[in-house]
Specification:
α2 packs across α3 (about 45-55). This protein is an alpha/beta fold. The strands form two sheets. It has a five-stranded parallel beta sheet with strand order 2-3-1-4-7, sandwiched between helices. A two-stranded antiparallel sheet has the order 5-6. It has nine helices and seven strands. The protein has helices at about 15-25, 30-40, 45-55, 60-70, 90-100, 115-125, 165-180, 180-190, 200-210, and strands spanning about 1-5, 30, 80-85, 110-115, 125-130, 135-140, 190-195. β5 (about 125-130) and β6 (about 135-140) form a beta hairpin. The structure holds BIS(adenosine)-5'-pentaphosphate (AP5) and magnesium ion. Magnesium ion binds near residues 13, 14, 30 and 84.
Length: about 220
Amino acid sequence: MNIILLGPPGAGKGTQAKNLFADYQIPQISTGDMLREAVRRGTALGKKAKPIMDQGRLIPDDLMVGVVEERLQQPDCANGCVLDGFPRTIGQAEALESVLSKLKKRLDAVISLEVPEEKLIERISGRRNCPNDGTVYQVYQNPPKRAGFCDKCGGGLVQREDDKEQAVKERLKIYSAETAPLKSYYSKRGLLTSVSGVGTPAGIYVEIKKALSKP
Ligand code: AP5
Ligand code: MG
């Protein structure tokens, strides 16, 4: 099953992609996580992406499409994947369509997580990440047991560079202008289900599963 999780910054795409992986064993393909890893490792892609990401802007489509095309060909994607943060523009959606058809795969569903802007800002400002194992916390709603440290590995938690106020504003603006139009793109193809992304992560996941089991 190949699924796209669509939604603005802070909507819970990463959180729900991990639930889908646990249930269906289909890997999360988070272009944001892949780019952050490239930045951390100092690769050519990472060097190009860092200043763009820090400002909350989008990496050019051709670069992103190449990264995803390569990732989709890895063996763990044989039974499907959850695309988190890709596609983000109509150009990326069109490119994905041709990549999937070239690889003889098909898109099964697009879930759009709907969350009002004030909640997004609250969530993002409280997000903390573990750079060692990727665990994500929310200091108000899902805090670590010991403030500032990962429950699983004990490592120090960090705040993403683009979770600072100015970058968040830019990310929200770009989502409305470039990514939100994908809802009508996928709705026209009969693939879109909108799910409220407000509530507990477990409650939201129940709704996602319902949407995926629709005939
Ligand atoms: P990316 O990493 O994809 O960031 P994003 O889309 O802005 O989304 P986030 O990761 O901020 O939010 P999320 O929806 O995953 O929410 P999460 O589950 O963490 O992209 C970053 C940058 O990379 C882009 O700005 C761009 O520069 C570049 N990029 C990436 N992909 C690209 C592409 N395709 N093309 C071009 N450029 C690209 O949840 C958020 C917080 O809320 C967490 O703390 C979580 O614990 C908490 N939370 C989750 N669910 C709930 C809930 N139900 N209730 C309360 N709290 C919750
Ligand atoms: Mg994410």
